[in-house]
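note to self: the first set is below, dont mix up w the second
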Amino acid sequence: MDRFSWSNGLLEIDETLVIQQRGVRLYDGDDKAKLDLGVALLSTHRLIWRDVKNHECCIAMPLSQIILFEEQAAGIGKSAKIVIHLHPAPANKEPGPYQHSKYSFIKLSFKEHGQIEFHRRLTEEMTQKRWEKTTASQPIPTGTGSQAGRTRAVGIVGIERKIEERRKETDKNISEVLGKRKKKILKAKEMVELSRSIANKIKDKQGDITEDETIRFKSYLLSMGIANPVTRETHGSGTHYHLQLAKQLGDMLQAPLEERGGMMALTEVYCLVNRARGMELLSPEDLLNACKMFESLKLPLRLRVFDSGVMVVQLQSHSEEEMIASALDNVSDKGSLTAEEFAKLLGLSVLLSKERLLLAEKMGHLCRDDSVEGLRFYPNLF
């Protein structure tokens, strides 16, 4: 964040606005910046951020400060982000909100989406580097006499030369970005192999591994988010693979399900599991087949399909009667509830909250009012 300087938010003469996006929060590295939500503006020269409420609070950073950038996908309770890695702050930089920062990167967190288009336009500007061209360009004079001698010769050869220079520059930038991405992928694979090696040492207790080292190794695995994932390479394919995967899911999902009230949509489970597995991603089909084996393996989890077709993973101890009683109690206390209001009360997704209300309605405890204002549930007094 120490690369940003205070700005009036106005564009320079040769500067053009490319795209702007509301609902963007800034991160100084991994830490939230001490700024509210604002508008991110991308121009041909700068990255600008302006506070929505206080328009005088505006900061900007030259695009020339950017080394590379990458997308960070959204997760459960987390917005999608663009991570931007930066050059060190120049010595003559103008004052800004941060004088010093321990990080060499920032994050743009997109609370109202729009990160895909913003990332695409940022990629175009970093490839074209229009901030370098506009400062050096001069108008071509026309006329006769002494002025004619200063007219630049621009013909087919000159145009072709310019096109070739731009192509080479673009190829060079793409090669640099791909090279850095390749290094990151190789590093991630090394981490996976390291985690497997550590896990095997813990399992077999090979060598002189003390109890303290064992605890430390386990903490390393948890911090990496990769606890020896079950893969087709290690456990083959077909039924045996899905059996082993189901057992690992049973251990992994116990705590998250308890934190979320005993139930999670299968889509949420898919995102949670793949984030923890790192590079060893699961396909939706493999996850579904593994979840179908919970009951046959007598694990404390169950795959449930509601009448609407929504699939969830729930704890076996999470009974249907408890869900119905919870829905009835909350609706009775409030007089009436929508799925959105019920979701806020329980801290669940709207999808799962609606399924609980529909289940209570099916059992005759609730009734509905479906109007232009939306679907609202009431205690069934009939």
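second set (the one i keep forgetting abt)
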Amino acid sequence: MPKNVLFILNKLRENGFEAYIVGGSVRDKLMGIEPHDYDITTSARPEGIKKVFQAYKTVLVGEDFGTVGILLDNTLYEVTTFRIDGAYINNRKPEKVIFSKNLTEDLKRRDFTINAMAMDGDGNLYDPFNGQDDIKNKIIRAVGDPNERIREDALRMMRAIRFAGRFGFFIEEELFDALSLNASLLKKIAPERIFDEFSKMITGENPSHYLLLMEETGILDVIFPELKRTVGFVQFSPFHDKTLFDHLICVMDNVKPDLSLRLAGLFHDISKVDTLSIGEDGRGHFYGHEVLGANKVEEILKRYRLPNKTIEKVKILILDHMKVHAEMTDKALRRQIKRVGRDNVLDLYDLLIADCMCTRADRDASFIINRKNRVKELLDEKEMKTEKFLEINGNDIKSLGFSEGKIIGRILKDLEEMVLDDPEKNKKTYLIDYIDKNYR
């Protein structure tokens, strides 16, 4: 254990109190994972914790709920009194807590057995609900009655799926049934809290595993009904050997773990369900699905109160994911860079590559990979590095005798188009001469 954690445990014990690390830190240590943080629990009441550490800076993190923060070496360590939760309100939080002197009573209120273990400073394990066995057997099991645990705090459903996906564990049968039975309770949970759990899932490894669990338990239909419609949806295309849902989660798996990019992968074809038409050849067509999809994704992400910057990037990627023609000139690529932005264009190509790879097992994405490499080269051109790249501006045009108005804007737009086609022409003398010959 880190020295400061041991210091807190030992100092509490020296003053006659029990003290343990608890929850995720114990679970991770038993699994050989370095804990990110350590939760500490103790028999000391908040006033007792503050007295023991009176020589140190303490912070009132949640004294009414038994938590005191202790600042050591610029790091805040939270120490919480053993407690029993009172009645839960709104399927989320206890109305009050009752302080306890019994470690087992404290562990009993926790969500899953793998999180209901404690360890003292000597490394002794306290495991009244056999969490260590469940780790060995790769099982997520509720502490006590699964339905009761879920109804106390509906967000535990998302946590069960997150832990199962993260560790590759199975959800125990009774808990699985409780998730399915109580999925609708998630409608009562703040959207931000749901998305906080969801974002941790889809920016981890193999995010499709979480989505499949959500679909199996019925949670997907509650939090993303628009996505549920893609399950089992046949695309009627010789270029696709997967259902739409399987294609979407495949694309999500095959892009880097960036939140915006993973969201774009998951939702890029969301509106194929709304735009399907069958041609005379029996093939499915989805005209305009990228435009409709970008608008639908904006609605979904606003519902979960994501930052506008994230929403805008996801929309940009979805709107351009169909612009992957067999041949694209440098002029077309430069326009694409300007359209989506230099900060987004390489992510767009990662999406395009994954989209191609997830259509059919034998699909070759090398032409898109080669195009991405060409885009990287074009990004080094000075014209691609700034929004205003012309070697001439509106004041230069006015100095040539043109009055202010639409004519100046039209000239600048024409020059930009010309220079995107041929950057060699982006020289002030050439541009002035061009204006003189073409706009007098």
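remember for set 2: The first helix runs from residue 3 to 14.
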